[in-house]
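User: What would this chain look like folded?
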Amino acid sequence: MRALCWHGERDVRVDEVPEPEIVNPTDAIIEVTATAICGSDLHLYNDRVPSMREGDVIGHEPMGEVVEVGDEVDTLEVGDRVVVPFTISCGSCWFCEQGLYSLCDNSNPNAELARKLMGHSPAGLYGYSHMMGGYAGAQAEYLRVPYADVGPITIESNLPDEQVLFLSDIFPTGYMAAENADIEENDTVAVWGCGPVGQFAIQSAQMLGAERVIAIDRIPERLDMARSHGDAEVIDYEEEDVYDRLMELTGSRGPDRCIDAVGTDAHGTGFAGTSDRVKQEVRLQDDRPYVLREAIKCCRKGGTISVPGVYVGRANLPIGPLMNKGLTVKTGQTHVQRYLDSLLGMIEEGQIDPSFVVTHQAGLEEGPELYEKFNDKEDGCIKAILTP
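Assistant: Here's the prediction, encoded as structure tokens.
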């Protein structure tokens, strides 16, 4: 079959690879009908994630049709149309029973690699390094789905793929980011990063009762989308000082809740941004935490910072201001399975149409070109869907 494979920094190719097979009786195989390129795939593209190997199949935002099920799969049948969460979860460990699906204890077969770096292993992920399980990714014609009774949600309506596909990751991720921010009535929420996760965090913050949402980015089309679809006020950080502007907009109090939807590859400005890039290049730190530092500086005393943006390793952070301002920080990969039913209900009821983020759609063969456009913020590319 054809699949998008990682071959090094800024090098992804469409290769011929073996079709997946049932390995365990709890597996299913799906024929992928749509799969998206995620902002976190760009961390792979830019070689920021350790333990990738040349030829790894990438991608973790799929949906498709079930074509084979293992003997112990009870909830799926051949022919079902499903969306598959990017987190792989067993459904039976202590963490899954608490609803903490992205922290599953059993789904990462390479857990020891993660333990050496982090102390514990989170759940396995599709197409996201060998430290996260070494699972083949979903930017391919077919995908093996482990623990098939726990992850996929069946789509029984006639909604098109582009309206339900993002249940696999970015819609639940944006929603959990807003939920983690502990938004209360009349709150002002600042969201750094107006990529796809940021766009859903903006809309979710509105759904959860924020009075004002202020979106921060530098790409005009992303700011336009935040303004037009998310009803957000916007700050272009290349045109204005973010701290000064947020203090002006909030009467010097600062936003009540701050969401970092950027993560490791922040494009900071001035000396701090340059310093981050140099430190990352010479391996003094793994991440560029410019946005997280800015959120700590800007958030009001006693406020909350939510971090859906992906970080991969070590970084220097201002722990003093974080402690002395009494800030609460909530982070983590998304417990996608926890949100599937409720968010699908919102889509079916017309409360939100997630397809608003789609700017590019193409076949698998155009994948390398779309990675380049998405990474370089060219051609207005905000979200790309591939149709294998």
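The CA atoms of residues 9 and 47 lie 5 Å apart. If you want, I can go into more detail on any region.
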